[in-house]
Amino acid sequence: MKISVINGSPKKGKSTSELMIKYISSQVGEGNDVSIYGINKGAVKYVNLKDIKNSDVLLFAFPLYVDSIPSHLLQILIELEKQKPFSKEIMVYCIINNGFFEGEQNHIAIKQMKLWCDATGLKWGQAIGVGAGEMMSFIADIPLGHGPNKNIGIAIKRLSNNLMNKKSGEDIFVSPNWPRFLWKIQASFFFWHPRARKNGLKIRHLKRKQI
Amino acid sequence: MNVIIHDLSTKESETLFTGLKSETKLISNNGQIKNCIGCFGCWIKTPGKCILKDNYEKMGEILSLADKVIIISRCCYGGYSPFVKNVLDRSISYLLPYFKIKQNETHHRQRYKKDLLLSVYFYGKNISKKEAEIAESLVKANSINFYVSKYNVSFLDSSEELYNIAEIQ
User: Fold this and answer.
1) CATH topology for B2-168?
2) Residues in A touching B106 (Cβ below 8 Å)
3) ipTM of the complex
4) How far apart are CA B3 and CA B42, in angstroms?
5) pLDDT per position in chain B (169 positions), as tens?
6) B159 to chain A, minimum CA–CA distance in Å?
């Protein structure tokens, strides 16, 4: 089976989207032709349109920006829509991650992707809405399906099974198997503050007003 | 101050916005906008300001000076057009990186202690009911995240209908 993956992260280095793609790739098994396209340079020319048109499955992994699809991916979706009609039935799956704790906050972007499928004539498969996206890399060494990775592990397995069988499934929303209040405190002390200090800032500078 | 973020062509905007009050700030597409690169620099490197230099780096500050934000956008898959979305993606410095719980959901805290008013005009031929519903839920979600106290959403068949809207004349 030919699987084309669009990594919708704008980051040049590691990203949660990349990690999610790694998780799915680990589940789909060998013998499949998987092509991964990064769009951090923004332009559709970096995506092999011929390859995509010949795919059985199209998987999008991207971060949620301001409650919806990030602008750089939106531009590429518009370009892809112009390629229609697609001669074969292509199933579309998505893994969308956001910075908030609740995976449910990805619901609007999922609906947008479904509208894109309608407009493009592709068949909707399934989506996972992942919460606490920035936490994922911190717990990447914990096996999927265990501890804080319990929920995402179950979701990845379900989506991968449907993807392999080209089946549709209900959208899944997950947050880490971890207390929200603890995640909220950790976000400040283990994520924002160390990064600010690394940039030579004091913690009070983070609340700086520009006026 | 009112802020108008729009995706109209230069020709359209020159005609539409001729009578605007001088205290209105127009955010137009100069063709040079860069997309957010997810670096969080606007929170942890230059707090309150985007690190990308393209004349759109001060969106957080501009929103802090606004009483009302008016968005004019082609409706695209139940959301904003790429340019308008790009401006919003580059506006998160308006908020703090820290989280708070609102309506049992996590959202970012306010950098500026103020609320905004928001009017959104989506235009486009044959905007479906489904598309309109998604667009409305998007504006509602944006309003929660950007601390908007009152918002309204309108759908127009074409950008020409904007000439009948009093608040953008």
Assistant:
1) Rossmann fold (3.40.50)
2) 100-102, 180, 184
3) 0.96
4) 21
5) 999 999 999 999 999 998 887 789 999 999 999 999 999 999 999 999 999 999 999 999 999 999 999 999 999 999 999 999 999 999 999 999 999 999 999 999 999 999 999 999 999 999 999 999 999 999 999 999 999 999 999 999 999 999 999 888 7
6) 20
